[in-house]
Amino acid sequence: MAWVLSGLLTDRRDAAPVERHGFAMSTYVRLVIHDRKGAEIADSCLEELARLESVFDRFLPGSEISRLNAQAGAGWVEVSEDLFAVLEVALDVAERSGGALDLSVAHLVDLWGFHEQDGRIPEHPPPNDREISHQLQQVDFRRIEIDPSRRMVRLPEGVRLDMGAVAKGYALDCLAALASRQGARAALFDLGGNIKVMGTKPDGSSWRIALRHPRRLDEFFAVLALSDKAVATSGDYQRYFMWEGERYSHILDPRTGYPASEVCSVTVMAPTGVLSDALSTAAFVLGVEEGRALLESMPGVEGVFVDRELQTTVTSGLEGLSANL
Ligand code: AMP
Ligand code: MG
User: Cα(222)–Cα(158) distance, rounded to whole angstroms?
Assistant: First the structure.
């Protein structure tokens, strides 16, 4: 009887955490699951990431997004729940940010050559103004049409979508949902610095998330204590190339066609991964003042900006955060 009782009373979270590393969605994956079925759950999380790549990776032949892009100009296309859910959030954030987030930047991203080879972007000259203004003509989120009643999307001819600003965040939501369906109550999912934490740690304490110094990449400048939250960072150090002493980083300002350069990094906390990811990219483009106003306008959202002088600015819910840059 005592054995039965202790079996019933043992919390599944009390098992030693399972930590798993991998590579998916073009980035490093780290899973920490406090559950006695942690190994099984981690396996299914890695499978889930492979499935999501086949939805969101526009360079994967046959992926859903590459099929949708190929049908630009050919009318309405029915899409999966995953793709539709991400488009809805991205279009909402595009609208709220005045187009600072705009998934129709794919051609422009390609023109700038933000593609890694063996983990880095080779040095190359930036495109010229004429090429940029030509590609900029195709960038306009208002021309992406969605029909929720039929779960359909219509892209005009010449428009291609890049899901890089939002897919990792959405994947975190999928991982958390999957782990939760399998009974997990405490877990951390990290996709290249986009993080989602589920519950608290088994001892009841919050998860501690360190924020990377945007110029001294092996150092951290602040620590956030979080539970049940998603955190995304957009940074100019994550993917960039140098040319003649200038840094050209991968987040483009859809208003100019050039890399946004007011801030070095923006970290956004939000209730869902997809929202934190969409907002971090939008806030990076908007910069400190407008970016902060955008984050303040949304419930349950906070953010930390680091500008080019390495000054930090935080939203009102994070006042008192100790930052050390
Ligand atoms: P993130 O790291 O989440 O800020 O996303 C950056 C990625 O999104 C880039 O590598 C591009 O693929 C894409 N991207 C760049 N600029 C924008 C933009 N203004 N709106 C939407 N996607 C963008
Ligand atoms: Mg993002």
Answer: 43
